[in-house]
Amino acid sequence: MKPFYVTTPIYYVNDRPHIGTAYSTIAADVLTRYQRLRGRPARFLTGLDEHGLKIARTAEAQGLTPQELTDQMQEPFRQTWKLLSCEHDDFIRTTERRHKRKAQALWRMIQERGDIYLGEYEDWYCVGCETFYTEKDLLEGKLCPQHLKPVERIKESSYFFRLSKYTQPLLDYYEAHPDFVKPSARFNEVKSFVREGLRDLSLSRTSFRWGIPVPGDPEHVMYVWFDALSNYMSALGGPVENEPAPLFEQFWPPNGDLVHLVGKDILRFHAVYWPAFLLAAGLTPPTQIWAHGWLTVNGQKMSKSLGNFLRPEPLAEAFGVDPLRYYLMRDVAFGQDGDFSHANLIARLNGELANGLGNLLNRVLASIVQKSLGGRIPAPTGPDTAEDLTLQAEALRCARAAAEQLDAVAPQRALEAVWELVSAANRYVDRTEPWALAKLEDKSRLSHVVYHVLETVRMIGVMISPFMPGKAHELREQMGLHPLMATVGCDLWPSVWGGLPSGITTQPGKPLFPRLDKDQEAAALENLGVKLDAPGSHAAATSKAQSPKSQKPAQEPKVTEPASPATQASTDTSISYDDFAKVELRVGLVLTAEPVPKSDKLLRLTLDAGDPAPRQILAGIAQHYAPEALVGKRVIIVANLKPRKLMGLESQGMVLAASDETGLFVSAVAGDVKPGSLVK
RNA sequence: GCCGAUGUAGCUCAGCCGGUUAGAGCGGGCGUUUCAUACGCGCUAGGUCGGAGGUUCGAGUCCUCCCAUCGGCACCA
User: Fold this and answer.
1) Which of A23, A36, A163, A623 would staple A486 via disulfide (CB 3.0–4.6 Å)?
2) What is the pLDDT of residues A41-68, one digit of tens each?
3) Does the C-beta of A519 come within 7 A of strand B?
4) What ipTM does this complex have?
5) Which domains, from first to last, does chain A contain?
6) Cβ distance A399 to A456 under 8 Å?
7) Strand B within 7 A of A154 CB
8) When comparing pLDDT for A46 and A303, which is higher?
């Protein structure tokens, strides 16, 4: 069977694990466990992104070396994944030697093929984002649009990746691999982005040291994304140079299937840059990239600036690790935005887990089997009634459906299919009334019926094991079954009826999923600091929750071409009078002003500027001026500017304004001169 | 503004290439069983399928326009 390799993003070590990162890590764990159950060789990688200016500065502020800092910060991640039963096969840190060596190897491969070259780069840089911004991205006062903090002007020699060359190859690759990016709507966005043309990508920095040195030019440090993306490969020991790399050979495409789970904010890096790097190095891109959505918390959008984290540990403590995993996989459609709702979690825990599955196991195993069947799994005695056959068929149908959904990375649908079977089993129990059969002298029908229920429960236990490994184990223990042992080449997914052995002694224990009564529910929410508007309902709830989160800077670096020699040479910016005379400045009287729909920056103005008819100008000042405040003002406009369409409206000129860190102010003339008067 | 998606019962959503009385889960209401974690099972929701046109013997299901919401891109000439 083709090996399966799944990755989470490497999380930025400066944050702590939260419900968003937990979600993608749990999803990766579920997929891995499922593939293993099917007998497929499977590998699950997660890890940490530990480089970047932000780390270096945080470390400095704390009087630590960056390495000391990241050594400390990694611990919460390891602990959290362990707590959440996420059993990664590898945990890579970008500061590890094995990673640095392989990132450099990848660099060399691309360079040797000619797609890395030296140029020069200059732009505004935000330390918080570790991202360059072009002038137009900045807020007034040269503030980073993400962090609202001042940016720095940085100019440096830089290596560039010839991304522009890969516009067409990428489009061809997308064409040939229609399932490369999921969901398909996201794929469309990627395609349209690439179709507009790609510019070369700045691939190195000289402005800070905390990163991986560029091979052969240690003044340069690799661009964080080149560093970060190569983790998926370096963790397998690839790319191969001189020494053998068996894991890489086994799991990297085309030999293995590689699935990257990513947040939608970092899709572009994975779906555009990463395959381009790999194509440039002569390597095979990943099989599939799955962009999952964001989680809101109790219906509230969260922003990073609030700095509030919904951490998984208290939730796991309050509700149990497995119920939490179940809830996240069941309630959120993979690939879409979802909502983490305490009320829904409790509703599913009580309804589906406790009442549905837990009670099913209990009502048969702890009750009938103990009282009437000597505590042993009975044997099927036949013949099958219509009800028996229906349950058998339903069991196999649901198992097939669940597998199909998991193959398609739709965990929520898979669980839905499993719970159809839970429901069918409960229905079967009601129809066959084993408690009535138990009163008969002849226990053969009872045995047959109970066997049917328990065989169904056994199948369910197998199917939920990727989602709730602990509970699946408990379930088997209670039934007297051995633990599931996934083995390569051995498909354990239910596909035939009758796998349950008879005669074994059961060991019923406490309810598998204890129900939360009203008091316990209230206490749990109290402990978590959550207030539900209407207890027990689906009403919105509020909490001191957090932001679902991007694992990486939300913005891609805006990269420009390396400055041309001519540009660099001309430092003299003075112009001749003739140059100035070309610009026609006039006084304009603002007649009307209104916001432009769907634009948060533009105002549509009409002005009397001495023209026969009022002139329409769009000005990007909506964040600084209320429309009413402008009407009647005399402002200076550039009158002979070439008209241009903005947001579908034509702008016939430009309103002059000045800005500094305190705000933006439109120009004005000191007296009430006639509209249209020339300014010079 | 360009591109795309979504808009179906109180809530969350299914409804493939158009075709009998538009579905599920949850919640609500009613009933019922008693083996069980007061759990289960059955019945019940009369919803203009966002709006308006159109194609068709026939349209949530195709076309056009519009509205709303959400994304991606663009936009301070």
Assistant:
1) A36
2) 999 999 999 998 889 989 999 999 999 9
3) no
4) 0.93
5) 4-292 (3.40.50.620), 338-551 (1.10.730.10), 577-666 (2.40.50.140)
6) no
7) no
8) A46
